[in-house]
């Protein structure tokens, strides 16, 4: 929400908001303010009339027939939950600003392994005297007039998590009572509910609409390795399918970064203060109806969803967000960089007509916790909303198409299985890499044998190729024909160069494994190798104390960071060890090139080797130690695997040129070789021209 500092009158607040946000609030309560308000623009775009100069002066604000009954002293607000009880999952502190959430903390989750500070998934943010309060009341529209509810002296606490406010007319007669009720039905789950009730206190029907905030941005991660991983996710139902009784909730698969909601910057390098989130032109066109929406990051998520009993649900409409007409996003600091902006979702309620003495309630469910399938699947309501499908181990971007969801699902389940056996996540990572390399060994073996045989054949043929180049250096067409003839005589096929193709086909597997380990919540705050480094040193050495962070072998008294690369605050050993492994692989096991290289080509090849040994470990320097452990294990296994394959080939004479030629002759030319020979014959026939008629053919009835 966007509060202004100590406005004295409603008209002053309206004009101030209009000047700051470039739009007009319909109305705000006229009560005096002793505390800063928490108000977000709730208006429609300002209408501009082309009139005469006398008519162009701003009109005075319309008189609002209602106001909020002021509360002299809101008092101390009682939180929900017990922060010192790690068996509970949710702890909520409240603020009088809109009776919203001051902070939502997780008693069993900490920012670091030192356990000095609890994870805060939601909290009030203040930027330049402007507040963003999650899940707070902004305003209520009564019979077309808007009354602000976000001020600090509006709400009175009835009991922990329960607040009420009254709207009255200018004569002090009660018009409506609004109640906000936060509840944690199950302390052992990451969920709470928010029920908002409006009661008609008049003797005539009234039309009402509530406007409130939803979740605000999750805090940006301290480590910027691999960039900002915050996303906006949602689930929806298709209208045509709903009409046929289909209750399947579809989860978006676009994996767009949260910055996609910001849109494009204006010429002044600022983002629009407000913008639509749902519905949009695209969702209307595709007839999508919103079921749930939320912010997520690498490990956590906050989701707003409908609240119902999955055992008694009968219609698809029950899976839609109740009482929400549309959702906007608001930005507190639109002039900042995309990852430094703070967004809050504004929930614009549906209009209700309430009879005298009657009350209408709308309930929202909120999940705020770890983003992992086991937790989602344990909740029948979230399972019914297909929330588990939002868990994807995918970095997005260029790697998104080749990071197959079904493959990452298998990998994370196998990783969990290995952990149930070993009891240590680092050992589980090693076991998983060994399993993956074992499964891919037949492909690796076939590929390497084929490439090395091709290299031996090219080396044996090099003198003949050199002679042909000298002989036909002035006749490129003849040189090409003779080269093709030489390849056929040597039994060499261009398909030998495709031996590296299976290695590229393995890439999706290793990309999926990388993404799985990067997003695995299970690795967060988990030490490696049963925490032996901490046990030996009494906890003073933080080497490999958290597999989701760099290994932190030697802490530095300073720190620095770069975008995408991450924050450096220690000397890390694993990336340096990774460079040593890469160097050993290149120096001792990479077969020498069989081709004659120009000085430029040799220089480029040398540069590539240097980049592999230096640049890749440098890029991995701030990576999570679990990922570094994966690369070290994978590269080490590759060294021994390559050595074993080469020893096997040497033992059976598979690299002897005479054996290779004998095998080629026995096997005969391959498919591509036969196709090349057929093409060459067709070419020769075409060059000779049509054959002249033979009288013998005509005499014996044979075709010419």
What does this protein structure show overall?
- By secondary structure, the chain is of the alpha+beta class.
- It folds into three domains: 91-117 and 184-391, no CATH class; 405-659, no CATH class; 671-704.
- The protein is built from 17 helices and 24 strands.
- Strands 1, 9, 10, 11, 12, 14, 15, 17, 18 and 22 form a ten-stranded antiparallel beta sheet that branches. Strands 7, 8, 13, 16, 19, 20 and 21 form a seven-stranded antiparallel beta sheet that branches.
- Strand 11 and strand 12 form a beta hairpin.
- 33% of the residues are buried.
| Residues in helix, % | 25-40%
Mean pLDDT: 83
Q: How far apart lie the N and C ends?
A: 91 Å
Task: Count helical runs.
Answer: 17
User: Are there runs of 5+ residues with pLDDT below 50, and where?
Assistant: 1-57
Rg estimate, integer Å: 35 Å
Largest sheet: 10 strands, antiparallel
Shape: elongated
Structural class: alpha+beta
- Please count the beta strands (DSSP E, at least 2 residues each): 24
Strand content: 15-25%
Oligomer: single chain
Number of domains: 3
């Amino acid at each position: 929400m966007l509060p202004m500092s100590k406005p004295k009158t409603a008209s002053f607040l309206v004009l101030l908001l209009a000047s700051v946000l470039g739009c007009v609030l319909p109305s705000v309560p006229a009560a005096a303010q002793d505390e800063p308000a928490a108000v977000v623009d709730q208006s429609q775009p300002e209408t501009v009339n082309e009139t005469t100069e006398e008519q162009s002066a701003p009109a005075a604000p319309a008189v609002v027939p209602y106001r909020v009954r002021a509360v002299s002293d809101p008092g101390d607000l009682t939180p929900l939950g017990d922060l010192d009880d790690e068996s509970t999952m949710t702890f909520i502190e409240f603020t009088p600003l809109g009776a919203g959430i001051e902070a939502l903390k997780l008693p069993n989750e900490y920012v670091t392994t030192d356990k000095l500070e609890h994870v805060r998934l939601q909290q009030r943010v203040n930027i330049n005297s402007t507040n963003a309060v999650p899940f707070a009341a902004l305003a209520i529209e009564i019979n077309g007039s808007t009354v602000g509810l976000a001020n600090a002296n509006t709400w009175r606490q009835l009991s922990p998590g329960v607040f009420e406010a009254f709207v009255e007319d200018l004569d002090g007669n009660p018009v409506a009572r609004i109640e906000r009720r936060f509840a944690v039905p199950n302390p052992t789950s990451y969920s709470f509910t928010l029920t908002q009730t409006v009661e008609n206190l008049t003797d005539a029907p009234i039309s009402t609409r509530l406007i409130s905030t939803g979740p605000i941005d999750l805090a940006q991660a301290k480590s910027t390795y691999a960039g900002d991983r915050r996303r906006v996710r949602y689930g929806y139902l298709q209208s045509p399918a709903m009409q046929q009784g289909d209750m399947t909730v579809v989860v978006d698969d676009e994996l767009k970064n949260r910055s996609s909601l910001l849109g494009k910057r204006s010429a002044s390098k600022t983002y629009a203060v407000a913008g639509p989130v749902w519905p949009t032109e695209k969702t209307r066109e595709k007839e999508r109806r919103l079921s749930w929406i939320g912010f997520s990051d690498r490990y956590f998520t906050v989701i707003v969803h409908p609240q119902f009993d999955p055992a008694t649900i009968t219609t698809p409409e029950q899976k839609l967000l109740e009482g929400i007409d549309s959702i906007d996003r608001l930005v507190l600091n639109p002039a900042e960089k995309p990852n430094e902006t703070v967004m809050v979702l504004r929930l614009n309620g549906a209009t209700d007509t309430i009879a005298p003495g009657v009350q209408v309630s709308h309930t929202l469910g909120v999940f705020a916790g770890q983003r992992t399938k086991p937790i989602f699947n344990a909740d029948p309501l979230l399972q019914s909303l297909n929330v588990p499908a939002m868990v994807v181990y995918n970095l997005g971007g260029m790697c998104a198409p080749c990071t197959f969801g079904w493959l990452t699902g298998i990998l994370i389940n196998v990783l969990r299985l290995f952990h149930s056996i070993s009891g240590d996540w680092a050992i589980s990572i090693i076991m998983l890499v060994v399993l993956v390399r074992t499964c891919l060994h037949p492909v690796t073996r076939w590929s390497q044998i084929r490439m090395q045989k091709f290299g031996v054949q090219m080396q044996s043929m090099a003198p003949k190729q050199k002679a042909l180049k000298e002989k036909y250096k002035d006749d490129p067409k003849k040189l090409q024909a003779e080269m093709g003839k030489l390849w056929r005589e040597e039994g060499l096929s261009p398909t030998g160069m495709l031996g590296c193709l299976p290695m590229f086909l393995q890439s999706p597997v290793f990309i999926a494994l990388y993404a799985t380990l990067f997003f695995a919540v299970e690795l967060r705050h988990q030490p490696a190798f049963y925490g032996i480094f901490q046990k030996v040193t009494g906890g003073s050495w933080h080497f490999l104390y958290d597999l989701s962070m760099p290994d932190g072998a030697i802490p530095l008294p300073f720190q620095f960071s770069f975008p995408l690369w991450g924050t450096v605050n220690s000397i890390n050993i694993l990336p340096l060890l990774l460079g040593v492994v890469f160097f050993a692989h290149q120096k001792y096991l990479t077969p020498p090139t069989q081709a004659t290289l120009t000085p430029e080509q040799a220089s480029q090849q040398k540069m590539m080797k240097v980049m592999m040994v230096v640049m890749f470990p440098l890029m991995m320097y701030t990576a999570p130690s679990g990922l570094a452990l994966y690369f070290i294990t994978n590269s080490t296994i590759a060294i021994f695997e390559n050595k074993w394959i080469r020893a096997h080939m040497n033992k059976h004479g598979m690299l002897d040129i005479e054996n290779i030629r004998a095998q080629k002759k026995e096997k005969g030319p391959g498919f591509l070789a036969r196709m090349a020979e057929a093409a060459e014959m067709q070419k020769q026939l075409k060059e000779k021209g049509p054959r002249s008629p033979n009288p013998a053919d005509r005499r014996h009835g044979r075709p010419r």
